[in-house]
Amino acid sequence: MRKNSILILLLLTPLIVSGQTQPSAPNPAPGRSQPAPPPALTHNAVVESALEVKHASVSSAQSSTQPAGVTMVSLAIEFQNNSRQVITAFNYHLRLRFADGRGAPSEGGEDLIKNLAIAKNQPEIASPSLTFSPATTRQITRNFTVRSGGAVPVSVEVYPSLVVFEDRTALGNPGEMAKMEASRKSEAQNLAGLIADLESVAASKDPAAALTTRIARLKQEGPSGTNSKQAKDLEGFSDVVGLFGKINNGHDIGREAFKGQLDEIRAQQKMLAEHSGLKRTE
Description:
26% strand, 10 strands, 37% helix, alpha+beta, 5-stranded mixed beta sheet, 3-stranded antiparallel beta sheet, disordered N terminus, 2 domains, globular, Immunoglobulin-like
């Protein structure tokens, strides 16, 4: 089995496309009117025929690590893949319900396309839970805190809104599908930049110095955004680049490990680019 620990740290994290927003109940100050209620959420029978909500619950407990009165809330959702294909991404909307009947909306999602690439290109390290295959379930847990005196939700309603399959077809909200496409294209571009930097480092006369210089330059170009992320990703290769020239049984262990990781990143980038064009079939 290849030792790709740096690669796994870089690539196992699923892309969160629709974002995770901390749910909260409306709590206007005295004398102020209640905010307008959010739009009603509706079930999409076509999406839910492929992505079934098997279980959804809310639990709460007083926190032992937060200030007095703060409540820890945990949402637990179990989805089941009822389709005949691997699901590579899905989005959902939530409505938290409070004891007084009020509701607070939230949303979430997972893009598992990188996980699929790992499963295909590194089957020796891929567990069955890495991908969302037909007839399997996927657990989602979301945790947040409610300050002292705040409303604590007692139940949750889940509305799957988008599901994307391995054959690049999709069911559900066209706006969310467009965001998914844009997110994948952006990530593919980011990985292309990382690949170019790593290839340049490997080809230089002093790879360790070249890597340090490139990281410093990226940090100078901008403290946040793409440059900052790319600098952080490059820092993850410092150890393996430091092994360049270390020979074991006639093999340069640093360069061989580096090549294996770079090949996997190329496969990730290729899959992201290929799966950034989706076809809505609903």
